[in-house]
Design goal:
Elements: H1 5-8, E1 20-22, E2 38-41, H2 47-56, E3 62-68, H3 86-106, E4 111-118, E5 133-140, E6 145-147, E7 178-180, E8 186-190, E9 203-205, E10 214-221
Parallel strand pairs: 1-2
Antiparallel strand pairs: 2-8, 3-4, 4-10, 5-8, 5-10, 6-7, 6-9
Length: about 220
Amino acid sequence: MPLSHSAVRATAAAPAIASQLGPDVAVLEGIFGDGVAVAAWQRPAPAALDAWLAHALPRAEVLELAQVRPDEPELADVLRALPDAPERAALARHLAELVELYAILTDASRVGLRFCVTAGQPCPRFHVDRVGLRLITTLRGPGTQWLEPDDVDRRRLGPGSGGLPDESSGLLRPGAAIRQLAAFDVGVFKGESWPGNAGRGAVHRSPPPDGSFRAMVTLDAL
């Protein structure tokens, strides 16, 4: 893999700054910077996989959970909702590489993998997760949305919204821009449980539904 254990352990001592985005996998090291809540590897979608998923994705809700070892990930059952084809094997290899990458970032010996196909919005409100580092990638459809630290009033998260929609609760500060991952981008989101990160977790949500089915994968250290 392009990243090494020694490389990812080097943390930056920087003030709170915007998300770290870039076309090289090394950008994910930026998640260790103080105040960085999101690091995203903006990678191009593999053309063959993207074209295959356009017609192979089931038009039904799918949720598959698995615990995998980075050195020997078993992903056949996770992808069983997809047609048995060479492209499915290629997708399994793609996900195995992400599991390995995530394990390098987190030193995880076991990884919890969630594969979801949905036409809905599993997490409709902007929120924070009580995790350390979570990897999120969308394989088909619109990707996860997030807000930069200066664009959000955290007092309006959860009950603080008063039951109002995110866009009218005061959660989004004036001029706020909603950021969004593209398909096959690899995002690492820092949660509230990361050491020293309480009150600074990445504020994010599922994208609003557009009538199509989307597929996404999340990885968590176990």
